[in-house]
Amino acid sequence: MPRRATLTTDAITAAALRVGDREGPAAMSMRRIANELGCDPMALYRHFPDREALLDAVADRALTGLPLPAPELPWDERLTELFLAIRAAALQHPGIAGHLAARPPLGPSARPLFGAMASALTEAGLSPEDGVRTVQALVAYLSAALAMAARAGAPDERWEQVKAAISALPGAPPGDALPVTGSEEQFRYGLGLLVAGIRAAGHGDGGGG
């Protein structure tokens, strides 16, 4: 284990991410992360003012290396690919996914992603002001979806109850049309609705869904 003499912000965030991946969000305390590093917990405060600042940096680290969509793709395809990739990256790290949902990161890994969002929305025909508001709405949707994804899985008893209630409505579609809460299927459908709304608002020429 590295000792205090070799302690860096990079080493701390890497250790915190390992702890979260292995043991879940409840384990990501300053004491537990320090134990992973073999140092005194107070040493962490030389690099981060508090636990929240550390978790912000860990959330940003979870997005490190996320590839940007190919610029030649239509704006709507780029936007869809980008949000699917962010969701997938966050869910690969269950210890930090909840924090990422509550406080979308603003660090060096996240900033290019926001830049790619802004570029796609400009191409869609939105004004800079509407682009900012749209990014905020998309990030809010992503955050809610990540929070729900923590409980995603096979249909449970509640899903069966909702399915039965929907099927009983006059003219209702089959109940199995209901996606599992927090699933990728549900996320893709909602994202498609948002992209369709952006297309209508900006009159863009996106060729994808």
UniProtKB/TrEMBL annotation:
Residues 6-66 form the HTH tetR-type domain. It comes from Paractinoplanes lichenicola. PROSITE patterns: HTH_TETR_2. Keywords: DNA-binding, Repressor, Transcription, Transcription regulation. This is TetR/AcrR family transcriptional regulator C-terminal domain-containing protein. It holds the Pfam family TetR_C_1. It comes from the Bacteria. Residues 29-48 bind DNA. The lineage of its organism: Bacteria, Bacillati, Actinomycetota, Actinomycetes, Micromonosporales. PANTHER family: HTH-TYPE TRANSCRIPTIONAL REGULATOR RUTR, TRANSCRIPTIONAL REGULATORY PROTEIN.
